[in-house]
């Protein structure tokens, strides 16, 4: 949508502000609906949510293409339909993507980060091909063709998912099963989730700012700017599988997140550039910084899903479909929140402080995030060396044991920050079955 929808909206009399909200409401809806679908996975099953979500989204995409027939004089109707369809599209995509994370955990319990890295490569390819393909189809066949093609392709994936995704992952939740609130009470889960939000902000904050900066400072045309965005996506897609394999090979993937955010801070300071460094803005520095940002955001983001699962397991929660669904909802909501906040914060800072300070403030936030995760690592290792888990940052287990019979605690009084060590449980015959996971991006 990005290459052509803003112009189409302007032709209908829609302001840039409203057009931006039409884009942003997608991520906002994902943030709200991700935890809900995470809770529905044990009830409806991953296969049903993926197939129905893609079917629903494909229909909304095709209908979005028909909005071209709304008359320019009917601006209110056009805007209303845009919001309704974008919200509905986001609901379908969130159902499919949240369930796909759960399938990843079920089918590949011992290599979640590796598979997650492969999925992020597919996401990177989508970010690379989407704008180019959409712009080409719009140029060749008009506004409706791009939506008709995308909706048709998504519709074709529905029978594939029905055939290939296991159907025996439905569990009827017991009374008093584990809840979202219980998992969010674990401080380490909140810290890693904050890392997901920050990584999404780093990526999305460039959407409303980078193109204006490149146009003003280097007088680049839209083709050259598109290639620079493509370069960042290529670095992200190429590095994601490598970081995933590395994360699975380590006992603790938190140091990878520290390195990812530290490198992101460096890349942002070079991109600005940071005014205190007295660097002159050069195109080659922009290219280097975008490559660094693509690889570093991938490094910070890829280990996060498996890390949240690991934390919940060590805290004593059962390794089952309910926990997988809740964790998938937490991850999806965190990323969506960052994806929504990035453009909003970036656009405001850009207007008030300019591009250089916008990147500098974002770099400072990345540095703070790296320090926070490093503190979590040092805190955990300190008490591991002492062998005294009673002194770890704790949450009350009284409420957990009362509300969640599926939660095991190492003490009748407290559940430690990361909990007692548990081996990851086997996932039964689902592990040996072939899975095809379709990532649907708005």
Which key features would you list for this structure?
single chain; 442 residues; mainly alpha; 16 helices
Explain this structure:
It is a single chain. With 442 residues, the protein is an all-alpha fold. It is 73% helix and 1% strand. The chain is built from 16 helices and two strands. It has helices spanning 5-11, 16-44, 46-66, 75-107, 112-141, 143-164, 180-184, 187-204, 210-218, 222-249, 254-271, 283-301, 304-314, 321-353, 355-386, 398-403, and strands at residues 394-396, 414-416. The chain has a two-stranded antiparallel sheet with strand order 1-2.
Shape: globular
User: What is the number of beta strands?
Assistant: 2
Determine Rg (CA atoms, Å): 22 Å
Helix-strand pattern, N to C?
HHHHHHHHHHHHHHHEHE
Q: List the uncertain runs.
A: 172-176, 389-442
Helix fraction by DSSP (H/I, runs of at least 4)? over 70%
Q: What is the first-to-last residue Cα distance?
A: 9 Å
* Main beta sheet strand tally, sense and closure: 2 strands, antiparallel
Number of helices: 16
Give me the secondary-structure category: mainly alpha
Task: Tell me briefly what this model is.
This protein has helices spanning 5-11, 16-44, 46-66, 75-107, 112-141, 143-164, 180-184, 187-204, 210-218, 222-249, 254-271, 283-301, 304-314, 321-353, 355-386, 398-403; strands spanning 394-396, 414-416. It has 442 residues and is an all-alpha fold. The radius of gyration is 22 Å and the shape is globular.
